[in-house]
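INFO batch 0412 | record 1 of 1 | parsing
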Amino acid sequence: MIDQLLKGNEQFRKTTFKGNIQRYTELTKGQQPPVLWIGCSDSRIQTGHITGTQAGTLFMHRNIGNMAPANDWSLATVLEYGIKHLKVQHIVICGHSDCGAIKALDKELDDTYVPNWLNNAIEAKKRVDAKIKPPKTPQEQKERSKMIEQENIRLQIEHLRTYPLVKKAEQEKKIRIHGLYYDLETGALTRVM
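INFO prediction complete | emitting tokens
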């Protein structure tokens, strides 16, 4: 597998990198991405590809379930660096269809870390389940999952806004916060709010 990655890099260097050498040379001088992207670690989502953006556009933070917990040092560091030093103008929280983290909210897991992490999304599940009847068909279950995935985006935006740095930057209109949802079946990226 690693040999495949290295061969893929070789192909990238011969085509994309060589074809955009001026852009990549500029990037060696530093970065000024306009967007901080908080997305899921899911391997099926290649953020630059689904947004059609070039290297240097997205400052990324990925984790299971596209979470923005209020007590996460890794995220806090990314936010601080992105807002204060890179001067990002937009923060995106992007969820997606068929999310394993959302599916896991309904399971009893025998893991050490995953259940604790998923507590950051449990409120999204509770909100949706309070609004709808329990699903009886596979289609209803799929719709419920989509609703929870999208509600989780809203919930994570709420969590994001608990960071004083984010709150201040948003009040001063230095950043805008966006919720996006990626559908694996259609490839569509849509707004959620």
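INFO post-check: Residues 12 and 18 are 8 Å apart (CA to CA).
INFO record closed
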